[in-house]
Amino acid sequence: MDWMYSVAGFLVGALVGMTGVGGGALMTPILVLLFGVGPATAVGTDLWFAALTKSVGGFMHHRRGGVDWQVLRRLSLGSLPASVLTLLWLRFSGSGQTEQRLILTTLGCVLLLTVLAMIFRAKTQAWGRAIRLRAPGRFKRAQPALTVFAGAVLGTLVTLTSVGAGALGVVMLVYLYPLRMRPAKLVGTDIVHAIPLTIIAGSGHLLLGNVDLVLLGTLLLGSIPGIVFGSFVSAKVPEPLLRWAIALALSFAGIKLILPVS
């Protein structure tokens, strides 16, 4: 079975390298639905999987100057405290079965939101641009507080499900900063923001006993060469077709996770 985890890691890494879709949106449902890993363990392990893989990409974006640090600080003001509060709730809620069901339902909902984010990203940016140009003063005054709030939403969702820092984070940023966030800075800011968030959330899950270190190492053995492979072949693969295929798979996984187990 161990080699199957590495194969899954390679496939997820390759898809991330080809499309940029967040690994959490793919890896966590694969672990839960295909391999039968417990929801909390899948989330905790995937958080460290994301933290380690995104640290490499974040370092490269930082070196190229592709990070908007002011926006990142605003996001972190919301996301990091929200992550800690969510971890405290998980620690003291004291209802294991209810907690597992909540994680599954929230994960399913976030996967469906991720699909919508993938499909309507361009329209969301156009909507934000129209509002920004129509009422620039009011829009800019609201940006800091809305960004902190967006960070808090991401912090809660990522800590509960390991999903959201990628596609959902990007959509929030293109809406809140439609003129300021160019593609390179958009991706770099989103990736670097996810690093401390996944480390804090992953550390909390590690203390809660929700991280399988052997599983994590096996996934990384496949994902690292997968990301390299995906980045090399990305120009030769019809990316829109892949995105629609991933959106369909995530929709199926999201609906299956939301439906109660019979």
Can you characterise this structure?
With 262 residues, this protein is mostly helical. Helix content is 84%, strand content 0%. The chain is built from 10 helices and no strands. It has helices at 2-19, 23-34, 39-63, 69-92, 96-134, 136-161, 167-176, 183-207, 213-233, 239-258. Helix 2 (23-34) packs antiparallel against helix 3 (39-63) and helix 4 packs parallel to helix 6. The chain is globular, with a radius of gyration of 18 Å. The relative contact order is 0.23. The mean pLDDT is 82.
Topology of this structure?
Layout: H1 2-19, H2 23-34, H3 39-63, H4 69-92, H5 96-134, H6 136-161, H7 167-176, H8 183-207, H9 213-233, H10 239-258
Unreliable spans are none
**Largest sheet descriptor:** none
What is the residue-averaged pLDDT? 82
- N to C succession of SSEs: HHHHHHHHHH
**Portion in helices:** over 70%
Strand fraction equals under 5%
End-to-end Cα distance: 26 Å
Count of individual helical segments: 10
Query: Tally of extended strands?
Result: 0
- Quaternary structure: single chain
At a glance:
The chain has 262 residues and is mainly alpha-helical. Helices cover 84% and strands 0% of the residues. Helix 1 (2-19) runs antiparallel to helix 2 (23-34).
